[in-house]
Amino acid sequence: MCGRLNVIDAPIMAFLSDYLVNVPSVASQLNVAPTESVWSLYQLESQWAATPMRWWLVPHWSKGPQSKFSMFNARAETIATRPAYREAFQKRRCIIPVSGYFEWRRVNGQAQPMVFEPIDSELLLLAGLWDRWQGKDETIISCTVVTTAATQTMSGFHHRLPLMLSRGEVEAWMDARSPQTQLNEIIAPRLRHPLKVTDVTSAMNNARDKSSQSQVAIRAPRVVNPE
Questions:
Q1: pLDDT the model gives residue 210
Q2: Any idea what DSSP says for residue 204?
Q3: Which of 20, 88, 160, 174 counts the most CB atoms within 10 A of its CB?
């Protein structure tokens, strides 16, 4: 599971500038929670585009937004077969660039938040799926973050891992013509980059708290390297 995100403006805009002629202005966002908006890079009629998307997938064929099922993460093991994700996986894959993500572990019966951040760059490229839902009076463009089983080095923190792509995998992930064998290699569980894992104050458990003070480190960070 990947339940919260951080977005820092400058590195995200630098990444988007590699694919877009007109780079949008991206605002920094801390403690982004599901159903809130995150910037996503996608393709529309073979053209690169970027827009804020609702982080909770709303399939185009559905009756609209609902909370019965958690749609902010999609398991890599079933995205090719589950009706909610199957068509999006085939035709509408996207990249969600972030500066870090959060997970929780149990410590003395309490939920301890941890922030996972890249060491060798300023952002993580999360693999996602997107869709466009059209209602009578509104249009919702939404996305979900693809997750895989955690690698051995990451399993001590959480049993799931957001699918983080390398720069060299971006175009293959986005290309609807990429063969299934190549996609299978991309979604296989592995850690692309060394990560810094830091315990932060429990204040960030409140999704309404968007201040940097909610993410003050309470322990020295640990480094997790690719296996």
A1: 94
A2: G
A3: 88
SS3 30: strand
HSE (CB half, 13 Å, CA atoms) of 207? Answer: 8
CA distance 213 to 227: 33
**DSSP-derived 3-state class of residue 55:** strand
The answer to whether 127 and 73 have CB atoms below 8 angstroms apart is no
Q: Decide: helix, strand or coil at residue 184.
A: helix
Q: Are 132 and 139 in contact (CB under 8 A)?
A: yes
Containing 173, the helix (H) or strand (E) segment is helix 170-174
In the chain, the domains with their CATH numbers are: 4-224 (3.90.1680.10)
Query: For a pLDDT cut of 70, what percent of the chain falls above it?
Result: 100
Global pTM exceeds 0.90? yes
Task: State the DSSP H helix or E strand holding residue 91, giving kind and residue range, or none if neither.
Answer: helix 86-91
| Amino acid at position 106, single letter | R
| 95-117 b/e (C-beta count within 10 Å ≥ 16 → b) | bbbbbbbbbbeeeeeeebbbbbb
Q: How far apart are CA 32 and CA 37, in angstroms?
A: 8
SS (H, E, C) 41-60: EEEECCEEEEEEEEECCCCC
What is the per-residue pLDDT across 85-110, written as a single tens digit (0 to 9) for each? Answer: 999 999 999 999 999 999 999 888 88
Query: 47: helix, coil or strand?
Result: strand
Query: What 3-state class would DSSP assign to 126?
Result: strand
Q: Which amino acid appears at position 20 of this protein?
A: L
By three-state DSSP, how is residue 70 classified? coil
Q: Which of 104, 33, 34 has the alpha carbon at shortest distance from 69?
A: 34
